[in-house]
């Protein structure tokens, strides 16, 4: 059975065009780009073409792109670079709803002596801007705020944040892992200093990411080693995956405008129908400032994991809003920070669409969901009809 894959914020299918582009780099172009010979040098040129393709997607210069192994490495590199280049500053700030790649790094840094501020969000997942501004000081080394939330799709006001932070000379990093390829990004118009992205969220393979570093930003490498990436990231280049990311950048750019309206319409229909047909069901997060592909839907008084298992029987692959920690199913920190009631956070499902989803797939989800929820609620001790 072909899966109905609506878990694209977890990872995406590698586009066939992207697979095709990367294959020669396993067989034909296997030279080391750092080698002196022409065979290796040619690979180096292709890497730089891929860099230019990714830069074009971001409205950046190719020299501002550093290839990494994943979004997590890009996030760590950005934060650590900002801290190492400003050793006297001991305050760092982020939001309460970041991905663990930032959240856990900040929690670790708190244990090593940094003063950490986690800015709260409201019930819609939007940042408390007054709290944020009043927390900034001359001691703030870096502010890291995600472009778009991986669970709810809620988009933070990046331009406004960039204005506030650049006025105060604070390094601004954004984890744009969920935004790149889904919404237009133009670094010429936004004063972000560093931006993280990850290939596997935009139809390139897993194991490749990139960090945008604005020209003039103080930087020190996280992976210390060879001279690769102009000394900004040691390690022999993951050539095939870099080529793939370059090709994927073109792929998403070419389809973004047309596909975004199609995907948004599918997502909106899914939400409209599920909330109409199933009682005690609501959408988590702000519905306007949101990625077009993401829907976080709370079905009250049922367990998300049970919903996922039943969806799985129909080949429907989605995600829940819980994290399985030490045997208990804890609602995610994102939903908890938004104040989503426990009974709703527990029953939250994330549907995340891509270019490959079709209308008939969405129809099938709409057809199956009401009976699944009814069956589970009939078994739930908390459900009162
Ligand atoms: N940041 C966000 C917002 C994400 O959604 C993810 C992955 O889900 C990451 C960072 C980590 O990216 P990677 O899996 O490439 O390390």
Count of DSSP helices?
13
CATH homologous superfamily placement of the largest domain: Type I PLP-dependent aspartate aminotransferase-like (Major domain)
Helix content: 40-55%
Q: What is the architecture of the largest domain at the second tier of CATH?
A: 3-Layer(aba) Sandwich
* CATH class (first level) name of the largest domain: Alpha Beta
Radius of gyration: 22 Å
Instruction: Label the overall shape.
Output: globular
Name the poorly predicted regions: none
Main sheet properties: 7 strands, mixed
Q: What are the secondary-structure elements, in order, as H or E?
A: EHHHEHEHEHEHEEEHHEEHEEEEHHEH
Structural class: alpha/beta
Tell me the strand order in the biggest sheet.
2-8-7-6-5-3-4
Describe this structure in words.
With about 375 residues, this protein is α/β, with parallel strands linked by helices. It has 2 domains: about 130 residues, Aspartate Aminotransferase, domain 1; about 240 residues, Aspartate Aminotransferase, domain 2 (3-Layer(aba) Sandwich). About 40% of the residues lie in helices and about 15% in strands. It is built from 13 helices and 15 strands. Strands 2-8-7-6-5-3-4 form a 7-stranded mixed sheet, sandwiched between helices. Strands 9-10-15-12 form a 4-stranded antiparallel sheet, with helices on one face. Strands 1-11 form a two-stranded parallel ribbon. Strand 3, helix 5 and strand 4 form a beta-alpha-beta unit. Helix 3 packs parallel to helix 9, helix 9 packs across helix 13 and helix 10 crosses helix 13. The chain is globular and about 70 Å long. The chain starts with a strand and ends in a 6-residue tail after the last helix. The relative contact order is 0.16. Pyridoxal-5'-phosphate (PLP) binds next to helix 4.
């Amino acid at each position: 059975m072909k899966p109905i894959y609506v878990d694209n914020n977890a990872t995406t299918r590698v586009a066939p065009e992207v697979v095709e582009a990367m294959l020669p780099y396993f067989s034909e172009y296997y030279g080391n780009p750092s080698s002196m010979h022409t065979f290796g040098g040619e690979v180096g040129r292709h890497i730089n073409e891929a860099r230019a393709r990714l830069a074009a997607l971001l409205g950046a210069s190719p020299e501002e792109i550093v290839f990494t192994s994943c979004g997590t490495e890009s996030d760590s590199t950005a934060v650590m670079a900002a801290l190492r280049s400003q050793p006297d500053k001991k305050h760092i700030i982020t939001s309460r709803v970041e991905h663990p790649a930032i959240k856990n790094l900040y929690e670790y840094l708190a244990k090593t002596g940094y003063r950490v501020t986690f800015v709260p969000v409201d019930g819609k997942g939007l940042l408390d801007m007054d709290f944020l501004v009043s927390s900034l000081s001359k001691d703030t080394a870096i502010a890291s705020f995600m472009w778009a939330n991986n669970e709810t799709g809620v988009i933070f006001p990046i331009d406004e944040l960039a204005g506030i932070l650049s006025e105060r000379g604070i390094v601004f990093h954004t984890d744009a892992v969920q935004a790149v390829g889904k919404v237009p990004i133009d670094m010429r118009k936004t004063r972000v200093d560093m931006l993280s992205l990850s290939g596997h969220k935009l139809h390139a393979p897993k194991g490749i990411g990139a960090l945008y570093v604005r020209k003039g930003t103080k930087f020190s490498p996280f992976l210390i080693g060879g001279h690769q990436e102009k000394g900004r990231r040691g390690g022999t280049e993951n050539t095939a995956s870099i080529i793939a990311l370059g090709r994927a950048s073109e792929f998403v750019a070419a389809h973004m405008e047309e596909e975004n309206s199609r995907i948004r319409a599918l997502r909106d229909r899914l939400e409209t129908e599920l909330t109409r047909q199933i009682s005690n069901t609501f959408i988590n997060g702000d519905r306007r400032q949101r990625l077009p592909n993401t829907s976080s839907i709370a079905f009250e008084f049922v367990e998300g994991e049970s919903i996922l298992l039943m969806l799985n029987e129909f080949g429907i692959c989605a995600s829940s809003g819980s994290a399985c920690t030490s045997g208990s199913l804890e609602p995610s920190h994102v939903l908890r920070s938004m104040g989503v009631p426990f009974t709703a956070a527990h029953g939250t499902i994330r549907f995340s669409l891509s270019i490959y989803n079709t209308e008939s797939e969405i129809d099938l989800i709409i057809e199956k969901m009401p009976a699944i929820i009814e069956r589970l609620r009939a078994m739930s001790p908390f459900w009162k009809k």
